[in-house]
């Protein structure tokens, strides 16, 4: 049986060591570690695969080599075949997202699963597809629907990972906190005082409330962090000092 509750990635007759290595790298990006290779064209081990794996060596070191696809899937209970073409078989066909959802459910119930990927030039043979329970078809631009072997592995690995990942869709990737309303209010008040001191509102005094309200709304919309407020405070202070210095220079002239 499969050693883990994650899907086994099965590369059927891959032609280039570079694509095997890139596939291994894509697998490890998304926590997939069990690789099986059926009859690699250039034999095994493959130095080009190791060079391309970029520190995903452990995936390659633990890879299992098989002479036939049937042997590679013999211990699995549910197998998916990736295909870009319609075939003369009637099988359930899923998008990568749909397949990933099913794979997650199957892993939770202890079902051993695998995903078949065909050779770079022609994909999976009809006999290989016959061994699968379901098909996976990637929605692509119909005018250019060819993707690299490693790209296909990356797509499926990504969807598998996302199906159980709880990373927020939007977040601030630092340890700062958003500015408090008190900090924002202090900043607004300071800006208002400095504008008043320079007579900014004198020609349009009747519109002062509207202008200040629009300004506050703009700052609120920016979603400022505490460091942003400090930066604005520093900028306002710098401008104030410059104006005061000029006034002092004028008094001494």
From TrEMBL:
SUPFAM superfamilies: alpha/beta knot
Subcellular location: Cytoplasm
Catalytic activity, reaction form: cytidine(32) in tRNA + S-adenosyl-L-methionine = 2'-O-methylcytidine(32) in tRNA + S-adenosyl-L-homocysteine + H(+); uridine(32) in tRNA + S-adenosyl-L-methionine = 2'-O-methyluridine(32) in tRNA + S-adenosyl-L-homocysteine + H(+)
Main localization of the protein described in the UniProt heading: cytoplasm
The organism's place on the tree of life at top rank: Bacteria
Cited Pfam families: SpoU_methylase (PF00588)
Molecular-function GO term, any one: methyltransferase activity
Gene3D superfamilies noted in UniProt: 1.10.8.590, 3.40.1280.10
Protein purpose: Catalyzes the formation of 2'O-methylated cytidine (Cm32) or 2'O-methylated uridine (Um32) at position 32 in tRNA.
Protein name: tRNA (cytidine/uridine-2'-O-)-methyltransferase TrmJ
UniProt organism field: Sneathiella marina
